[in-house]
Amino acid sequence: MSLELHQISIAYGRQRVLEDLSAETMPPGTLVGLLGANGAGKSTLLRALAGLQPARGRAVLDGTELFTAPAAHRLRQVGYLPQSLPQASPLLAYESVLAALRATRPDLRDGAAQAAIQGIFDRLGIAGLALRRMGQLSGGQRQMVGLAQVLVRQPRLLLLDEPTSALDLRWQLAVLENVAAQIRQDGAIALIAIHDINLAARFCQRLLVLGQGSVLAQGTPADSLTPDLLNQAYGIAGRVESCSQGFPVVLADRATPLPTDRRN
Amino acid sequence: MTAVPLAAGYRRFILGRLAILGGLTLALALAFALDVATGPSGIRLGELLGATDNAALRVILWDIRLPQAVMAVLVGAALALAGAEMQTTLNNALASPFTLGLTNAATLGAACAIVFDLALPGLPSLWSVPVLAFTFALGATLLVNGLARSQGAGADTVVLFGIAMVFVMNALLWLVQYVASADAVQQIVFWTMGSLTRSTWEKIALVGLVLALCLPLSLRQVWAMTTLRGGEDHARSFGIPVERLRLVVLVRVSLLAAAAVSFVGTIGFIGLVGPHLARLLLGEDHRFYLPGAALAGALVMSLASTASKSLVPGLVLPVGIVTALVGIPLFMALLLSQRRRA
Fold first, then answer.
1. Which chain B residues contact residue A122 at CB under 8 A?
2. Spatial distance between the Cα atoms of A111 and A126, rounded to a whole number of angstroms
3. A123: closest CA of chain B, how far (Å)
4. pTM of the full predicted structure?
């Protein structure tokens, strides 16, 4: 299992978002943090890999071309959590996960489906939400249920678009710990678009930093995070220091004037 | 941890929902019996059932009351099922066969068949009105959906184009009425008010056939539709072809709406209230929601049919008027009581 991205270009009409994006091969069990400023193309890349956005180039997951693979084949391999939260519908959280599982695995026996759903609710620590209606849940709780809908299918490639954006600190850690554990166990790969650089540096083995339509940096957090990169990618003056456990920590000092082409 | 606790808790919800479906079925059976027992002649059900050798009473039972009561159930179920599927695929709680102008298009088709005396070669005359109603409804659906897709737009745009379609179809209907004879205009008015009085067993068989065809097809897509309630992107990422699902549903809804409208006329309220009642009672797991909507629609229509024969002694009011006058206050009361409980 590996993921390769070769010369991927994506445009909305005439507006190019990503141009010739390539990334080093990602081995199984890798958690990849997708970083970059707003509008850098993180969500667009994830949507393209999920088959929701037309793209040129090649994305190869364990020999399968994702951009040209039949939907049914891609469906078995890829799990995508969109940035927008699951809708506040009258569905119970349990049945929203059941529906997600049944929509993709109609042949699964009832007992196996129940065990899978029980397992994911227990692991994420949200069993108390299972029999509540989605409309009664907070944004963060719905985000957790959305993650359960993706994880229960055990995809080979997880595409998570800001999965911690509505969560408090405890749940942010719980989400990343669970995703890391699942991809380690399944030998899967996860691409996570995330704004919290320190959280990414703590959990991700690799970072892919997007900006100006392409890859600004890639590699381990320790190698790729530099003050120059922070300035280039986010337009900030900042420092990269090391915490007592050896993880890089970003300290943002101030915003720097944006280059003319990034003002809007 | 074992698989028992959550599954067991969820099973209690399932049993509760099955009980509600059973309750709706029972209520429908009672409403149906009440509908058959009610008529402008005031003859009681016992008299009708006991009169095996009285031809007049047999005609009242078999040619008037029973056909009307059965038609009320079938039309209510068809319109509510259509409304429920539309509300899901268009992600809009106000969607119903009215919203996209389906009912109006079907009425226009029926009006054209009557006014211009259009007969389809090789088909009995009974079929020309429903076939044209369906053709117009399907045409309107494909036009609205095609326009929305050509703009790369989603469910909201389909609804907006649908609202525009309502006005276009109404304008065309007025035009047809303007050039029609007085007799034809009177027949068209029958459609716009909605009435069960012209129900026959032949027409019932046709509506029943359409419902028997569409309901199993709907039930085959319950998981896809339930997943769609989590959001379009979410559903697409699970490999559900949302646009194709929407098109298939809209074609099915056209068939259901046209079958209902062809024989009883315009009854807009049922397609809205049936799904809402089902949602209040059963949630949105479509395994229960769709049959629940059909049962709720049939129940409300059956009660409205009874009311249409009881409100003014000796007179049968058009059922479309009654559904609005009696049903909407009931619907509002239900919504308000739900809000108070929340």
1. 1
2. 20
3. 10
4. 0.84
